[in-house]
Amino acid sequence: MLGQQLVAVFAGEGLTALDQNELDITHEAQAREKIVRLKPDVIINAAAYTDVDGAETQREAALAVNEMGVRNVALAAKDAGARLVHYSTDYVFPDVSQEGYREDDVPGPAVNVYGESKLAGERALAEAGPEYFLLRTAWLYGPGGKNFVDTMLRLGAERRELEVVDDQHGSPTFTKDLAGVTREILSGDFAPGVYHTVNAGVTTWYEFAQEIFRVAGLTVAVKPVGSDQFPRPARRPAYSVLLNTKGPVLRPWQEALAEYLS
Ligand SMILES: NC(=O)c1ccc[n+]([C@@H]2O[C@H](COP(=O)([O-])OP(=O)(O)OC[C@H]3O[C@@H](n4cnc5c(N)ncnc54)[C@H](OP(=O)(O)O)[C@@H]3O)[C@@H](O)[C@H]2O)c1
Questions:
Q1: 227 closest CA partner among 143, 163, 165, 151
Q2: Above pLDDT 70, what percent of the chain?
Q3: 170 lines ligand 1 (CB under 6 A)
Q4: Does ligand 1 have an atom closer than 6 angstroms to the CB of 50?
Q5: Whether this model's pTM surpasses 0.85
């Protein structure tokens, strides 16, 4: 989902885009050799194991991509002398905050296995030692991938009533905006380090669904329910909002959503 938007945003800037068939980041020697041979100035790693519920039973598969894969790419970046952009998640934080998390808050213990694997990746990145930009993000949607907005549009076309969770808070983020801010950070005076890159504002899945239906012109009665009504394999945090205290400010999530739906 994000990779496709990066390809669009960096079009015409000498980008080489590789999918999993062309570059499997879990194959250490191949991945390093292939990346170094390209002599990149910048490497952007949008590859990840992203099945949050699946990770609960597929821990090794999640770690293979999200920890070992990241280590391989980071070592290749170090070898090539390239700057590396990598993406992580609010799930690296525990579910204990009521204000959200800053870039300099120490992550862990993660809220679920996927979060653990992404946190292991953050550490592997730092240990490998390339110049890196770690962009944590959340609640992504956009063209080309399974996401909440598309799911709501599909369900909204089928049903008149829907129950949606209202006790989890976050910042819905458009992949187009995340790709754009990646370019902004790389081309501006931003120091390497951790950034929290989410669209501005905080909402719940319930309010997000209401806004999706309002903008899309669908008449659906949305009923707020607790997370206990939708048991899932992986725990989700109640308030893991990513506070952006140092990076470029992204537009409000409602504006980004309106563009996506238009
Ligand atoms: N989606 C969210 O809500 C969310 C929230 C917070 C953070 N993030 C982070 O944001 C980044 C982008 O997420 P996304 O939603 O765009 O993910 P996505 O749509 O699931 O895309 C991940 C891509 O990684 C590829 N991939 C998986 N294993 C690979 C491997 N071994 N080698 C090379 N490529 C591999 C996948 O290929 P296949 O399609 O062939 O499997 C897929 O194209 C990830 O780092 C993710 O952890 C996402």
A1: 165
A2: 100
A3: no
A4: yes
A5: yes
